[in-house]
Design brief:
mainly alpha; 6 helices
Amino acid sequence: MLDPAIAQLLKDDRRYPLEAYIFVFEALHYAQHSLGLGTECPSEPVVALADDEEPGPQRHVTGQQLCEAIRQFALEQYGYMTKLVLGNWGLQTTGDFGEIVFNLIRIGRMRKTPHDRREDFENVFDFDAAFRQEFRIMMPEPD
């Protein structure tokens, strides 16, 4: 069952589907646990997006760090289709990641420090450059 706060958020702000929120939340987990990004804030527990996730010590990740983790996570998950998948979720710029993060902060599903700003997510990287991968079809050498 969908968390009521998330359900209300999706009603109030229709720019991004649930999949986009889940993806950003999973990318945060990837940043903290797979990439080891962030500084530990043991006094505040992580608020889980889903009921089946376990709260634990929060590791604060900056907007720029999260954008880079999202880039790496997206490429790992979707490869050549990354830009298309993110675009289908309404994610066109790194600023969209910030919008999602601050929506999750507003409903208490993510936390921020006094220094975190929505602008921290603006123009961190260019989607075309970040998600366009070289793809060449190589013809076999003649024998």
